[in-house]
Amino acid sequence: MQTVRVRIVAAELEAKRIADVLERLYEDEGNPVSIYESTDDGREWTAEILLFEVEPDEAIADVRSRIGSDAFSAPVEADILPELNWVEKSLEGLKPVTAGRFTVHGGHDRDKVPGGGIGIEIEAALAFGTGHHGTTAGCLEEIDRLFSMREYDRVLDLGTGTGVLAIAAALRSRQPVLATDIDPVATKTAAANARMNGAGHLVHTFSANGMNDRRFGEEGPFDLLIANILARPLMQMSRDIAAHMQPVSTLILSGLRIEDGPRILFAYGCHGFHLSKRGEKEGWLTLTLVRGRPQA
Ligand code: SAH
What we know:
Elements: E1 3-10, H1 12-25, E2 33-37, E3 45-52, H2 56-67, E4 76-80, E5 97-99, E6 102-105, E7 118-121, H3 134-149, E8 155-158, H4 164-173, E9 177-181, H5 184-196, E10 203-207, H6 214-219, E11 222-228, H7 231-236, H8 238-243, E12 245-257, H9 261-269, E13 274-281, E14 284-291
The protein binds S-adenosyl-L-homocysteine.
């Protein structure tokens, strides 16, 4: 998930006016806007907004076109923020995490998987998903719960990162799972992790932006989709996701802040999905939605 910071440096009043305008223009999307003094003498102030999943030049063009390029003379700059939140360098030193009957662990903790549990060994490298994040753990619990009630025959893990959720579903069900990610490094990592966990033959991967690839048409429609991405892309993708789901199907959606719940429910409600289960972990929300006859 690329985050681009767009900055406009100006005198105090001008910068504050620009920050106010940005706040209003991006209100619906909720992009964070900040304003701060950027020189000690107070002569320069910076109005700043974060945009997601865009390139810096697109971000500048978007801000300029929304504000109106002749509304101010200050230069607009953009840079890419380091993706710290999405990157776990290594599991070294991190404790194993247990969620449902899954225990996610690094190579050094193979012996920590409780008897009867399902161990998932992850070498996180450059992808997100070690189980230490509340969203991943929330999804793992739901995967365990859903598979304990019934089988699913076409499962998609959208935004797979390290592949942790796809591997969990594959090990739990012993059935094929499709795992995709916008980031080719993630899909490669996921495939390697699946092999390491003896699920290489079950987890099939490819890179794609959202559901935007003809291969989803060939592999779907799906009856279970797991997507631990952020609220905004999940809102944007709701129509595409719904279009690739079977009439009777289940979604596990995570990466959501508590306050994102209502708009996600509304967006997916428009496509016939309703809330089946809601879980909170460390301020993050995981929603299970179903369409068709109640099943989860
Ligand atoms: N499923 C893992 C990783 C979640 S991190 C877990 O639960 O721990 C979110 C992942 O979604 C990242 O790997 C990111 O690259 C991917 N992603 C973000 N936007 C996406 C999009 N539009 N299409 C597909 N994948 C996306």
